[in-house]
Amino acid sequence: MHHQLIIIGAGASGLMAAVTARDLGIDTAILESNGRIGKKIGMTGDGRCNITNDSTVTGADDEAAALLRKYYGSQAEFPLPVLKQFGIRQTIDTFNVLGLPLTRLKEGLLYPMSLQAASVLDIFELALEERNVSVYLNNKVLDVTVSTEHPRFKITCRTETEEQVVYTSEYLFLCTGGLTGQNAGTDGSGYALAQRMGHTLVKPVPAIVQLQVQYPHLKALSGIKLQGRAHILVNGEVVRSETGEIHFAEYGLSGPPILQLGRTAAVHLARGDSVTVSVDLMPSRTQEEVKQFLEMNWGTFAHRSVAESFTGFLHKKLIPVLLKEAKIDPNLLCQDFSWKTKGIFNKILKRWDFKVTDTRSFENAQATAGGIATKELVADTLESKLVPGLYLAGEVMDVDGDFGGYNLQWAWSSGYVAAMALGKRIFR
Ligand SMILES: Cc1cc2nc3c(=O)[nH]c(=O)nc-3n(C[C@H](O)[C@H](O)[C@H](O)COP(=O)(O)OP(=O)(O)OC[C@H]3O[C@@H](n4cnc5c(N)ncnc54)[C@H](O)[C@@H]3O)c2cc1C
User: Fold this and answer.
1) What are phi and psi of 119, to 5 degrees?
2) Does 162 lie in the same domain as 147?
3) Residues 178 and 223 grouped into a single domain
């Protein structure tokens, strides 16, 4: 079977690329290892699919620059030309045109109005059908060979019945994702395909991921959720901080601010740095205000035990652990507190340190940091500098975004831009 364009991967970037390419009049086909398109999309946003995030949309000229700050990779500026061509507004408009209006739940997080990730798949299924895009499901791409003759690409697949089928195309999009959600088909095989075509892999590590910490009382803390601020310290220096609901678990820490910090921890742990996460239990008060608050509390309730004195402003399960941490008898009365003991509490409420031993695995992560090196791609077209006619889109390349819709946004933006660039090349 021959098509002008073959897209490997019917994930977020591949689907956006297919619809865009077909609208430009390009004969487009998708090869997908799963029996259904967009299996991973169905798992996103707790089954609701956080499609994008409009909190950086200001109407100012530097809107794309603000969005760029949500992305990471070896080449910090690389996503900018793509985000300039297709940002948040274009995403909202495109989904409206496809028949999927979006709704905002909180802090700029946009979801399909149905609040069902399945509707994103359904809409793409309709869009592909309406445009006569050829979709070959249960086709796992095993190998790609590149020729200087026509057809340029020869793609070997394994089908459901284990037979090998060969497809050919003039242009090839690699939209195979990263290493997260492996039961959704993203097993890293796209990296191997790109490497065999001469590309370099920047070592992938989990991003948007929970932290495993070393702490003797984790079991006692497990299940606690609190509002706090978390700082990541690398070799003793704070490199990033995030505020929100922090969750304690038997393995360590989770919750939105921790997931946001996961990438920084993973990258530095891979380099052999010492990584600590420090939790501020009273982020809205300064150290001095915490001191005054505790003094007043202990003065007013001098007759209470130290354990009782924390009732009402600290989670109940947290109190015995903090007392153990400070090595204090819970029955000690506030009136008998030494200055030293008071100092320990003042500090621990603002800076409670946990040594990070690892992040959780790709299985638990929501994004992959690292991937195919972006220096080998043309930034405003996403075409390979090494293999003419090969384009990359989505998580397969060394670009990852923050928690809150930014990874799907990259998939939509890069899928669209690659398809538009190909259209310009074919029809110029
Ligand atoms: C649990 C979870 C929740 C998430 N929630 C959100 C969220 O709410 N918002 C957000 O912005 N991001 C979220 N993400 C991240 C987001 O899903 C990804 O960044 C995004 O899907 C990447 O798009 P992609 O097109 O690059 O790859 P994918 O969407 O992963 O698609 C890649 C496709 O390629 C196929 N494929 C791979 N190799 C081959 C091969 N050799 N042959 C044929 N087909 C192949 C795969 O089967 C897959 O269908 C979440 C991720 C996970 C794991």
Assistant:
1) -70, -25
2) yes
3) no
Calculate how far, in angstroms, residue 186's C-alpha sits from the geometric centre of ligand 1: 7
pLDDT one-digit tens code per residue, 238-282: 999 999 999 999 999 999 999 999 999 999 999 999 999 999 999
Instruction: State whether 13 and 147 are in the same domain.
Output: yes
Look at residue 181 and tell me whether its pLDDT is greater than 90.
no
Q: Residues enclosing ligand 1, CB less than 6 A?
A: 8-14, 31-34, 39-40, 43-45, 49-50, 140-141, 175-177, 180-181, 185-186, 189-190, 366-367, 394-396, 405-408, 411
- For the beta sheet containing 109-112, the strands, ordered from the edge strand earlier in sequence to the opposite edge, are 52-53, 109-112, 102-104
Task: Give residue-wise pLDDT tens across range 326-366.
Answer: 888 888 898 888 888 888 888 899 999 999 999 999 999 99
Distance from Cα 190 to the centre of ligand 1, integer Å: 12
With residues binned 3-state (H G I as helix, E B as strand, rest as coil), the percentages for the chain, rounded to 5, are: 35, 30, 35
pTM: 0.95
Q: How far is the CA of 36 from the centre of ligand 1 (A)?
A: 13
The answer to whether residues 378 and 82 touch, using CB atoms and an 8 Å cutoff, is no
Task: Pick the residue whose CA is nearest to atom 45 on ligand 1.
Answer: 9
154 and 298 share one domain: no
359-390 confidence digits (pLDDT tens): 999 999 999 999 999 999 999 999 999 999 99
The answer to whether the bond into 101 is cis (omega within 30° of 0) is: no
What CATH number does residue 28 fall under?
3.50.50.60
Domain that residue 37 falls in: 2-206+369-427
